[in-house]
Amino acid sequence: MSVTASQQTAMDSAVRHLVTKYNPQGNRVGWLMMSSILVEAWDLYSIAFVLIFIRDLYHPDPFLLGLAAAGTQGGALIGALVGGWLSDKIGRRVMFLSTMIMFIIFALAQAFVPSIGWLVVIRLILGIPLGSDISNGYTYIMESMPKGEREVMGNRWQFMFAIGEVMTLAVIAVFIVINLPHDLVWRVTLAMGAIPAAVILWMRHDLPETAVWLVRRGRFKEAKHVSKQMFNDNLDMLPDQDITVPHPHATAFLSSIRKDPIRWRATLYGWIACFAQATEFSTFAFYLPVLFVMVGVSSILGTNLVTMLLYIIAAIAGWVGPIITPKIGHRGIGIAGFGIVLVSLLVAAWALYSHTTAILPFAAAAMLWGHYWDASNCMTIPTMVAKPEYRGTASGFAYMFVKLPSFLSIFLFPALFGAIGQANATLFVAIFPLIGLLAAIFILPEVYGYEQD
Q: Does residue 319 carry a pLDDT above 90?
């Protein structure tokens, strides 16, 4: 059954009305969605800090150890694509409840694995709800907050990542100080990700489906009820009877965004920025041991504390970036972020070539600052400009460009790093912020406060 012209007009009017209207509960919804980033940050990066304990226990070959580190990234790649599509098909609420439940179960399962092979399997499965929850969370933000505010909230995901990383490092540092057995350190650390997930699940359980999704599915009665609850608005432009709306095809969003040059250029930039920022960050991890040696840090506890300091700087950058986005726009934050990372990596390469190693810690701090700016809007932009009926799919597709390079970089970059050396590898990595910078200058139109026609 097709939708009549009058029904389509009413649906478009209702969606436009919801996007521009102030939502008294919008900030709560946004922060609840952002809080799930803590869960992903805990799991994705805690493994990096406890790999040394896993290696000492199981003595795996580099292939298995690399899969244990990158497994969640690979699972998140699947989760982003499937979860985004399911979010459009069956609804946002069903997806965020199911992903949190799934994460809690498999996060706890990590503590009881008998071998590293089983750890790899569990972490691959664990990545699926993580990738799905990110894409679903962005659809919630874009459909629960008015234009202008939704961009600021969406850009806070890097701040939440940094907070999650600092929390993880702090907990591991405490375990080391109290001399917890190393076999327990990594098991307890990985399993503890279930705690914030359970808290988030409890806090989210009463959130309704988004009114925008209900409108696009023709479920007008429920949409009116949710709009009254969330916006104190009856959506009088909609009829009181539900209608049958054909389900959109998963791939239809590609042809949809190509019809509008602004949406197409903005989405293309989002994909490029996602790939560039993920690659620059994932490869950067291999420089940290070099930096620690340069500043005289050799113990596990000292490494954790220095890393924590770096991510405190990153958290500050992640908080400042969204605040200034309304003033300088999405183009401004992208140009500034990628520009800072590019200059920082070039300075780091010069320091390695000239053996001026005292500069490296400052270059690393500047690089993280720039990264937490250039990565801030790469998910916000493609999710925001997508049509509501394709928003979950568009968000998941964009997140694929984050997870794929993350998986490949963590898994494959050590070989390149060892083959061409530190200085040459630094110059190689500088290619990615250069690509992001050029995309921000020449491809991205300013879409802050964007509203679809």
A: yes
